[in-house]
Amino acid sequence: MEEMSSFDLSGLPEDFRNQSRIAVGTYSVPIVVNGELCGSGTLIRCGDTYGILTAHHVVKQLDFTANSDKKLYLSVADFPHRLTFEMRNLASITIAEPVSDESGPDMAFIKFPPSAPLGEIKARKSFLDISVVPETKLQESLYDDGLWIVVGFPGQLVASVGVSSSSTPAVCFRRIAFGVEQVVRSEFGEFDYLEILLDCPVKRWSLSSFGGMSGCGVWRVPIYRDGETKEFLYRNCYLAGIAFYQTEEADNSRRLRCHGGRSIFVQGLKSLREAGY
User: Residue 269 is inside which H or E element, if any?
Assistant: First the structure.
């Protein structure tokens, strides 16, 4: 079985790409508070602790105080619905607080309480357990080969779709997945970074900004080809980054600045364990 080289994936069938996008999309959620999109996130767990990994600046704008009257809404299926958490029942854990918007570091975790909405999320979505073989997950995140996918919820694709059965406005938060043309890695202090060039022009989606995708997941999908049938195959999808900043538009595209695997599987896991999880 032959492993495909980095970014040399021009022969991949579109239906195979779509399968990969769907696979990583099951971990992705929009972060919506009182009807407003605040960012994107990736569903993770640390043992029996479940929640959302996202950017710190997304979490910073939320009210987790005991007197908060805000509500977190999540969408986990393709039909009109919402799962509701009272913000006062949630907890946030800072993994990295930014020195600046552009340079970060910028990552945090939102913890779900045991509840019926959490049970519904578990039934319909997937949580990546960062506490199980973290060394392997880290190593896989550091390779550059395979198909790379960025999946999140741009604010400019939020659309009203009428009125729900409860006579409240129904809003669609559209998840999209981009391929990646280039990944540039760097490290500063205890955190690592990815600078990602997306392979789709901004105009393709009529987007002038990727606002709303802060906190979205970056995934690496190793691709294999059967030596006899030449069929494209993949075994696993690996979380490789969390986005926190978009650069200015240049040549009809933008770059996303993200944290890499060391930030997730070393510093992220360390922060959760220090918090007692």
Answer: helix 269-274
DSSP secondary structure letter of residue 104: B
Q: Is 139 helix (H, G, I), strand (E, B) or coil?
A: helix
pLDDT of amino acid 2: 45
Report which secondary-structure segment, H or E, holds 14: helix 14-25
Q: How far is CA 204 from the centre of its chain?
A: 21
Instruction: Report which DSSP code applies to 157.
Output: G
Count of structural domains within the chain: 1
The strand ranges marked E within the chain are: 2-3, 28-33, 36-46, 49-54, 71-74, 83-86, 91-96, 107-111, 128-129, 147-152, 159-163, 169-172, 176-188, 191-198, 217-221, 224-225, 232-233, 238-246, 255-259
Predicted TM-score of the model (pTM): 0.88
> What does DSSP say about strands 159-163 and 147-152: parallel, antiparallel, or unpaired?
unpaired
Range of the domain at 14: 2-274
Tell me: pLDDT of 206 over 50: yes
